[in-house]
């Protein structure tokens, strides 16, 4: 029991304060809003540090990795009562760091690591669908359905593949050996949810953000290779959008059982079969309808090594293949050469949009046509800006005439402000170059890029280091 009592009370200004009264004397401490904020930060830091110490003693099993259990038709028996002596507290869950988890963190983690829920639940009572996870024991799986309430134990349900009678065949009591075996497997699955999964440049697990110094981010050497001990990859569905209306459609409930049966229980195989048949049926019509600029744009963006089946599907003639190969050379793809400006002019927004649509219909939604064209334009602008720069400085430029990153920040966007800043730094040829080219399509950003590239090149030369080929004059 705590040796103090707390009471919330209103303070002047309408804020809520906390009065803390010691149980051993009459001392009273009143905390206002600012003090409460400081106290909360200290308490959170202490709780986080305590949780890290707890995690260090309860690391995931390196020899086990939970996976989705896709067979939802097999009958299973709830066995959570084996681990709730009082009918309420889950002693297995309480023996792990997950006893204090938040349903929001759990949902975010499960979705990031295992993808969208694959087990249907009550759409009124439950936050979302659930996940069935494997365990080290073949006769136990764990259902995870984040419970949007204060009792986190309701988020987890161990399920036994045997009957209820088998669980209680010891004169109505749980079989000790079976209970221990299932309890150990259940705990192993719970601890596996501490494995970090990456989100951009940090990691999360079921408890939230993982501290950079956490033992969960440890590395080890295996066969002369450095490998992460516990981290896992995000699910392939991360970043993929679900269009509005898809899940609300009545056809969705029919389509899922259909592709499942078509794949003999394997949904992925069923999808592949349906997609291949659908693409083969619509491809000839869509390819015939596409204009040559649209078809050409799609094929120029498709790498032969990464998209051989897409190129084969288009049924190009030998002459068309030669045209594509020639134009790839003119665009400088895979070379330092500048893209042909006349070809670049053919990449209109309408052509790119139609090429992207065609790639999607032919089964390649991830073909980055917009990025392909954008990169070509950036390359064209960079080479143009470089040529303009070295036309003004054919014999080079002293390094002290080039502004530093601190003098001219990279985020400059206003042309007049940029020109004014350059004039303050230099009244000679650098200002002449900026003034003559300030209105060109490549803009301020590319001019800044040239300045910093040239400065970096000169610094390397001054240090007698080999030049980076990317920084050499064209």
Q: Can you characterise this structure?
A:
- The structure is a single chain.
- This protein has 474 residues and is of the alpha+beta class.
- It folds into four domains: 4-56, no CATH class; 77-228, no CATH class; 250-372, no CATH class; 376-471, no CATH class.
- The protein is built from 16 helices and twelve strands.
- It has helices at 33-56, 91-94, 103-114, 164-167, 176-192, 250-262, 267-289, 292-301, 308-313, 318-330, 341-344, 349-361, 369-392, 415-425, 429-437, 443-462; strands at 4-10, 16-22, 28-31, 77-78, 131-134, 140-144, 156-160, 197-199, 202-205, 208-209, 219-222, 225-228.
- The chain has a four-stranded antiparallel β-sheet, covered by helices on one side.
- A hairpin with a 2-residue loop joins strand 8 and strand 9 (202-205).
- The N and C termini lie far apart (76 Å).
Task: Name the features.
474 residues, alpha+beta, 4 domains, four-stranded antiparallel beta sheet, three-stranded antiparallel beta sheet, 16 helices, 12 strands, 44% helix, 11% strand, extended
Number of domains: 4
> Averaged pLDDT, please?
83
Look at the helices and sheets and give the structural class. Answer: alpha+beta
Order the strands across the largest sheet as they lie in space.
Answer: 4-7-6-5
Task: From the alpha carbons, calculate the radius of gyration and give it in angstroms.
Answer: 32 Å
Q: What is the global morphology? A: extended
Poorly predicted runs are none
The N- and C-terminal alpha carbons lie at a distance of 76 Å
Helix % is 40-55%
Largest sheet: 4 strands, antiparallel
How many β-strand runs?
12
- Counting DSSP H or I runs of 4 or more residues, the number of helices is 16
**What is the H/E order?**
EEEHEHHEEEHHEEEEEHHHHHHHHHHH
Our estimate of the beta-strand percent is 5-15%
